[in-house]
Amino acid sequence: MRSARDLLRLEDPALAPIADKVLAGERLERGDGLVLASTADLLGVGRLANLIRERLHGDRTYYNINRHLNPTNVCVASCRLCAYYVPWRRRDEGWTYSVEQAVEVAARDVDRSVSELHIVGGLHPRLLVDYYEELFRALKTRFPWVHLKALTMVELDFIARASRLELGETIGRLRAAGLDSCPGGGAEIFAERVREQICDHKTDGRRWLEVARAVHAAGIPSNCTMLYGHVETAAERVDHLLALRELQDETGGFQCLIPLAFHPENTELDHLPPTGGRLDLQTIAVSRLLLDNVPHLKAYWIMLGEKVAQVALHFGANDLDGTIFDERITRAAGGTAGTGLGRQRLERLIREARREPVLRDTLYRRIELASDVA
Ligand code: V47
User: Is residue 368 a part of any domain in this protein?
Assistant: First the structure.
């Protein structure tokens, strides 16, 4: 009988015991993660991750029709990794929408085909819980069919503190106003050593996980992210994924992991090179293999570029995010993948990668568009 190693055409013998575990459906450990993240056998790691991807989802590849909405770019955190923010002292140079303005900006692209608004911004000391309640209510009144995926754990933590409210009460009020789920941003890399260098003034890793726990306890699903390709080590990536896995064992509230490729341009870390395709693909594959309890893994085409995102569909990813009109965070950091892809183009990318496109809502339910909105 041919061994797992032969079947998967593994070149690195260190992958063989990991392949045995993957084939037996066993959980991988930290040591396995370190091997996977550092081996030169990229295709071997990719085949292992693809095995899990196909076990979970076959050829199905999800995407949605969404629009980003950024109510403000004014932020008191001043993260070195970020090219999007305007600091508080220069707030006149940034934007801060009134509720009415935010609704009008959303209305530029929201029609009946759009199922999700992805709403994130900056930590603005004057945008307190009542602003977001009013915003969510106004958006739900104007676009009642749209799912509001809004506010990262960092924003929720800040809004609660700035509003002098308990976190649980803040989350409850926002949910009552229309918050449906939360995006996964702000997690970066949990290791303190790394956060000191890339985002030292914001919610730390322990607190990010605590807020996610509270969000899940309130019955609100969320996503999670990992920002890679800056000053972190492979071991710090592995530990980040394992911390997410541990919380997911407890709450089951994460729907999707999005590994985010760091874009250095226009940030204080612009001396760093952008990520290469190898790190992108290996990180996606390692994430799929370690994070065995989070159902979906997103190849975020805006950060990866369309072509790497297509290949990633064979390295563990089963979702491309969405049409993404008006994305501003990656664009500010030199992202060139453009902003906004038509539905037909996304489907073509997926089909050309020999996968099956599935239009979804934010909760991964299949959507059939009525012919008059398709
Ligand atoms: O929180 C900031 C990261 C995140 C840069 O949940 C940067 O469905 C790269 O979280 N280079 C925002 N990354 C994006 C995000 C996201 C995207 C798509 C889908 C979902 C989801 C979440 O982008 C930030 C931060 O981690 N980021 N600056 C940069 N220069």
Answer: no
CB of 236 closer than 8 Å to CB of 187: no
pLDDT digits (tens, 9 = 90+) for 94-126: 999 999 999 999 999 899 999 999 999 999 999
Same domain for 23 and 86?
no
| Whole-structure pTM value | 0.97
Distance 35 CA to ligand 1 centre (A): 27
- Amino acid, single-letter form, for residue 35: V
The answer to whether position 79 is within a domain reads yes
- CA 23 remoteness from chain centre: 28
258 lines ligand 1 (CB under 6 A): yes
> Same domain, yes or no, for 43 and 74?
no
pLDDT tens digits, 344-374: 999 999 999 999 999 999 999 999 877 666 5
Mutate to test the pocket of ligand 1, among 225, 231, 336 (most ligand atoms within 8 A of CB): 225
* Alpha carbon of 185 to ligand 1 centroid (Å): 5
Residue 19 and residue 75 in one domain: no
**371 found inside a domain:** no
Domain that holds residue 110: 57-359
